Each structure stands twice: as C-alpha cells, then as structure tokens.
Amino acid sequence: MSIKDHLSISSEVRKALAASRPVVALESTIITHGMPYPQNLGMAQRVEAVVRRSGAVPATIAIMDGKLRVGAKADDLERLAKAGGKAAKASRRDVAALLVSGDVAGTTVATTMMAAAWAGIRVFATGGIGGVHRGAETTFDISADLEELRRTQVAVVCAGAKSILDIPKTLETLETKGVPVLGYKTADFPAFWARQSGQKVDHRIESAKQAAKVIALQFELGLGGVLVANPIPESHALDAREIEARIEEAIRGAEAEGVSRKDLTPFLLKRIVELTGGKSLVANIALVENNAAVAAEIAVALSQLGAKRKAKPKARA
Ligand code: PSU
Ligand code: MN
Fold it and tell me: Given this structure, which CATH class describes domain 3-304?
C-alpha cells in the first residue's frame, strides 16, 4: 500500500494534474463546522464555480468512505453540508483513525494541505487559517495549521486570521517556523472580516504572477509552505470595532460554557454569526469567494511558469 491507495482523486482533477493544468484545493471544515446549512452548501458550490470561472479546476478535499477524497462531487458536497457538526473535524492527528473508522469528516487547513500535497496540488484557497488562540500562554492552544505550513509545500490563500486568535502571536509563530506571509496587494496582515489587523506582512506582492514566482522558488528551494494574505473586498468588510466587541462576547461565552480544544473555533464562529445577526456569515462567504479567485489566478500563473520552464531547454536545442 502506498499513500495513493488512501486518496480518491476525481477523474477531472486527476486529468488536470496529469496535464499540468491549474488546480485549486478547497477545504471542507469550513463546510462542516464553519457555517450553518444551507449557506455552507451554497458557499461550497459558488466557490467551485469561481475557481472554474478563473480558469482552474476546483478540488474540494474531505474524508469520506475511508478515503481522502480529492475533488468532491456535487452529492459529496451535499453530504458534507448536511452532516455539519455531526461530521468529524479532521486535523492531521485524526486522519489515520478516521480513514480506519470510515466516518465522514471535514478536513481543516492542515489536513487539506497534506492531502493536496499528496495529490500534487500546490495552491489552496480557504477563509481564515487557524493560529495561536488568545490566552495560548496558559491553554497552549495553537492550531496545527501553523506547523503544517512549515512542513508542507502548498500555498494557502486566506483572508488573514480572525481576531478570535492572537494575531501578533500567530505571526510570530509563523516567523519562527519560517513561513513567508505575502500580502496580496497589501502591506497589512488582514483580520478576516476587517481589511487590516494593524500588523504588517513580511512581503507585499502586486500580482498573481509575482506570487507564483515566489511560491515556485520557495518550493524549488524545499522551504515549505507559503501563506498568501488577501483582504476581504472593501464592499463586504465589517466595522473592526463592532466585530471586536462581538468576538469578545463570544470568547466570554466559550469560557463560561467551558468550551475548549478542537470545539473552540467552531463554537466561536457559530456564536459570532448569531451575535452579528448573520452579517459575519455574508462577509465570510464573500471573502472565501475572493480568495478562490486569487488562488485560481495564482494556480494559472504557476502552471504558465512551469510550461515556460519546460519549454526552455527545447528552445535552446
Ligand atoms: N478559521 C475560520 N474559519 C474556519 C476555520 C478557521 O475563520 O472554518 C477552520 C479551518 O478549517 C481551520 C480550522 O483549519 O478551523 C482550525 O481549527 P483549530 O483552530 O482547531 O486548528
Ligand atoms: Mn486548537
């Protein structure tokens, strides 16, 4: 048995990869644990459509029927969306146990990166990454997403991190792990619903082509993953102070109810949707679509770079 035996790659994705055509990986914890039904299903379908419109093939990744599914079908998306929180949440440490049990699971950023790399996909779009939680100095709650970015050669396009996390500590941890944080047309690290967190990114990039060059070189040098931070569209950004008040309320709720560990992020996301009367959900969907478009452009640019490189020796001969 090899790793490939545990992957179930759709024929569309397999063909695209074999022909070096652009593919964008998409995660599924955002479907099962990040949003309520039926908005989660609508989001998953629209994000795939955005990737296609931008010239790439979408590959939603999840754990289903004892396999890592790469390129979920329409009915797979529906199963995931309807299962919601009844599905498992698969971080790296859960993968082997869930493949054995056969349970349905949404894959987190960490697990989606891992599966994408195994399948040969280099670009991945999500909403926000996990990071260092507020109070991590006592709880030690630091998402496995950060360690995965260190070790796995996939570029993750996100809208920064939610300020349910400690953003300065998250950025410090990424620095320690050697993960480059590229600001897509911005010098500020975005804070998910807000375009700015008050923290700077490491490097500002101006185009998908420039991002692709950095990503290609990072991978060529064997340096691990890349984080591309793409701010929420201006038209959908929420007022930073208002959302901060809601986040603090949600965190107090989690403390009062004793919610921790892997349940914390889903709990906070759900509470914030309730506390904003659904406004945070609309913004969340808009930023994921925006990230999918940028990820597709980067995937297209990466495959063009690859084609150029392959063509070079021939041109000289
Ligand atoms: N942050 C969000 N939305 C999400 C998640 C994080 O704004 O849906 C999900 C992602 O799948 C991420 C995971 O990888 O939560 C992180 O969970 P934890 O903090 O338990 O590692
Ligand atoms: Mn955690």
Answer: alpha beta
Residue nearest atom 11 of ligand 1, based on CA coordinates: 108
Helix (H) or strand (E) holding 106: strand 105-107
pTM: 0.96
Active site amino acids: 27, 162
Q: Which atom of ligand 1 is nearest to the CA of 262?
A: 20
- 263: buried, middle or exposed (CB in 10 Å: 19+, 13-18, 0-12)? middle
Q: Cα-Cα-Cα-Cα dihedral of 41, 47, 50, 54, to 10°? A: -150
Mutate to test the pocket of ligand 1, among 26, 29, 149, 156 (most ligand atoms within 8 A of CB): 29
Per-residue pLDDT tens over the stretch 179-234: 999 999 999 999 999 999 999 999 999 999 999 999 999 999 999 999 999 999 99
Domain ranges in the chain are: 3-304
